[in-house]
User: What shape does this take?
Amino acid sequence: METPQQILERATALHLAGHLEQAIVLYAHLLKSNPKHPDLLYRLGMALHQSGRAEAAAQMITGAAEARPQEASYRHALGVVLHGLGRHDEAVLAYEAALARDPLLSDTLASLGGILATGERRAEGVAMLRRAAVLAPASDEAWTRLGNHLQAVSDLKACESARHRALIAAPAKADRWVSHALGLMEIEQGDAAMRAFRAAAVILPGHHDAYNHLAWLQVGRLKIAEARTGFRRARTLQPDLASAYAGLSEAAFAAGAPDEAVRWMREALTVSPGQPHYRFRLGIQLLAVGEMAAGWDGYSQLRQKPSAVRRDPSIRLWNGVPSKDTTLLIAADQGVGDELLHACCIDDAARDVGRVVIECDQRIQELMRRSFPDAYVHAYHRVGDRNAPEHLYDWVPPDYRPDAYADGALLLSRYRGTVAQADAAARPWLKADPDRVAEMRERLAALGDGPKIGVAWRSRRLTTFRLPHYPGLGPFEEVLKVGGARFVSLQYGIGWREELTASGANVSLIDGLDTTNDIDGVFALVEALDLVICPSSTVGWIAAALGKPVWLLYNTPVFLEYGTDRFPGFPTVRSFRKTQVEPWRPLMAQVGQALADSLDQA
Assistant: This one.
C-alpha cells in the first residue's frame, strides 16, 4: 500500500506531465485526511486552474492562503486566478497581499502593475512594471508587459526599448522578435522591422504572424509581388487569418485592381465578420468602383472603430429626417483636412434642421464662424488619447443643446450620395478673411509678373504607408522648372523649409505665415493665388472649398472618384492620377507639360 508521501509524489509527477485529471483525483484523496493542508490545497487549486475550473481553483487557493497566511506565492496564485475570472478588484487585493509578504516578487509586481496601469492608479502601475523589469532583467515576460503598456499610452520609443530588452532576454523566442519588429514599425524603423520579422520566420518557419506583418510592410513599400507571396504563406499556415485576406485586398488596391481588392476584403469579412475596420475599408473600395449605397454603408463603420471619437450617448446619431425642431451637431471626427471636406455639406444640413452647432479644430474656428454665420461654432474639447479619444460638450450653451449629431460619413452619404447628387451640389463653401486676402494679394504682387501658383508636395505626417501618396520635392522639379510663373509654398508640417532650401528650388515663401497653424492665413493666400498644384491633402481641400483652380496629384483608385476619373462635386479640381505602384516622376512630367501649355495659351 502506498504511503501518503508516495501518493503525493505520484500526483506531483502526473501534474507536471500534464495529466491533470489524474492528479486532481489524487490531491483530493489526500485532502480527505488532511482538509486544511495548505500545500495540498494550493496544488489542487493550481491543477483545477490549469484544467479550466477557475472558480473551484479560487476556492482551493483561498483555503491554502488562509491556512498559511505568510506564504506570498499563494496570494500571487490567487491573484492570477481571480484576474482570469475578471474579478480585478479582488485580484488587486490578492497581489497587494503577496507583495506585503514579499516586496521583491517580480511576477507579482508585473501582474499588479499591468492591472493598475490601465486604471486610475496608472502612475503606480507603471512604476511597478518598471520595478518588475529591473528586479528580473532576464525575464522577457516582465519587459514585454512593460512594453505593451508603453505602447498603449503611445510612449513608442520607450516601448521599443522595453521590447528590445525582452528580445535580449529571450533571443530564441520568435514571438519576441515579432514584438520587437512591431515596436520598430511604430517608430518608423521599417528596415530594422523587416529584418526582425525575417528572424522570427527563421526561428519558427510556421510563425504566420511574422510572414503576415512582413507582407504588410512590403505593401507600404509597394513591393506588391513579395507582399502577395507573404500573405498567401500566412494564410496557408493560418487559414482563418483575416489580416492576411485584408492584406491581399490592400495589395490589389495599391496595384490599381479595386475589383480584386473588394473580393479579398469580403473574404476577410467572411473570416472576421465583426471587424469594423475591414467593413470600412470595403466601403472605401466599393465607393472607388462606384457602388455607392453599399460603399457608404461600409464607410459609416468608421464610427465603430475602437479609435473612433466617443460622444455623449444622449446625443443620438441623426436619422436624416428634416425637422425644424432639431438642433444638429456637426461633429468633428477626423483630421482638419477631413473637417474642411465635410463642411461642403453643412449648408445642406442647415436647410433641413432648426439650428446647427459646429465643433471643429481650434485652427479653423474663425473660418467656420465666417463661413456659417447662423451656426454656433466652437473648438472641440477632446480628452483621452489617439487610441480612445472622447469629446466633451461642456462648452455648448443650454439653449443650443444638440438633439442629434452628424459626422462626415453621414453628411457625405446623405448629401453627396451619388455622382449626380454630388455634381448638382457643387459650389464653394468656405470664405477667406477679405482683409487678409487683400494683404496677401499685395505680397504676391511684390513677387513680380506672372501667374502666382501655390505648391505643396507632401503631407504633414509621413509614415511608411502614407509616403507613397505624395510625390515629394524631387519629382516636383518637373513642375517647378516651367518658366513664366511664380511658385509660392503652401507646404506645412516640419522640416519642409530645410528641405526646400537644400533643393535650391525657386519657390517663394510668405514670411511670417505659419502654414501649419495659421490656417486662416493659408485660406487668404490660396484665395489670392491663381492656381494650386498639390497632392491630395489639406491644401487641396482648402482650394476646392474656395472654388479656386486646383490640380490634384493622387493615386487612384480613391473613394471620392466614385468610379469615375474625376472628383464629382468639385468642379475646380483637375485630376492628375496614377496607381500607387507607378512612379511619380512621369506623372509630374505630364503636370509640368500641362502647366507649360496653359501658360502659353494665357
Remarks:
- Residues 437 and 524 are 4 Å apart (CA to CA).
